[in-house]
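Dear Dr. H.,

I hope your travels went smoothly. While you were away I took the liberty of generating a structure for the chain from your last submission, since the lab meeting agenda had it listed for discussion. I wanted you to have the full record in hand beforehand rather than looking at slides cold. The sequence, exactly as received, is reproduced here:
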Amino acid sequence: MKSLISLVVRILKYCLYNTPVRNWRLTAYIYGKVGSVLIGTAPFPVVECMGVKLKTNGADTSVTTPLINGHYEGYTLEVLHKLIQEKIEKRPLQPLIFADIGANIGVFTVIAAAKNPSIRVYAFEPNPMSFNILKENLSLNCLNNVTAINSAVGSSSGTASLDVSSRCAGTHSLYGNGLTRLEVPLISLDEFFIKAKAAPDLIKIDVEGYEPTVLRGMETLLKKKPLQVILEFHPKWLKRGNQDPAAFLSELTQSFDAIYCLDELRKEARRYATGNLTLERQILSVGFNLLLIRGEIPAFLEKDEI
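The corresponding predicted structure, in token form, is as follows:
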């Protein structure tokens, strides 16, 4: 039965992933119900993904279901790995730093750290439950090259109110949605890395619509070249935070030298530029993980090997 449901989920993903239907509330509701069947009754199932073991949260259908199904942002993870490998090859004696903003249970953190033991990872996660699972996953995979920080990231330092969904633990947000609220520490990336006397070479940001605020807190870091940022561009969450997706996309085109849309369905990186109306409509209606680049274009993208 579960195999059949898993097949149906894969078919629906193929048909709906790059359409606005993906962001409908009904779609999220159905996906959550299907996810509950796939996950079963285990509160914290352990799954394998790209050679690592991950303890997951059974209440988080947005992460656990695709991990079980084997389609959790696989293309984005592939791009991340290639970015890290290319940087290591270019400067083998210089430590590479990866910052994971909105690390959740640590999927990106654990895979990056396990596959590239020479790098240093800083993982930021404000939700106490997700943070505890993140730390367990570091231990589960015997990783000692990760610094985990139980904090939200924003434009300044202080505290913030985090809304946590009881239905889907992966959708906690710093924007009010009438859910369970927690006071959590807040820090800007500029301030954190000044104190750490370091600067990230590669950053992943997935913070449910709070991405513009995170970028405002890293103005100094954004002057660095080369720098790559993998950023979730989710128009629905941006609008919930009173952010204008079109204005934010325009800001990104001005701040970065190149933008690529990481298409999970087609498994390809599509370069975006102002005036590309077809791709722009998709970004603003559906959303993508975006690869934002300051400095030279990575060789594997120029060669179109992905």
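Two observations you may find useful: The chain has two domains: 2-69, 74-302. Residues 47 and 53 are 6 Å apart (CA to CA).

With kind regards,
E. W.
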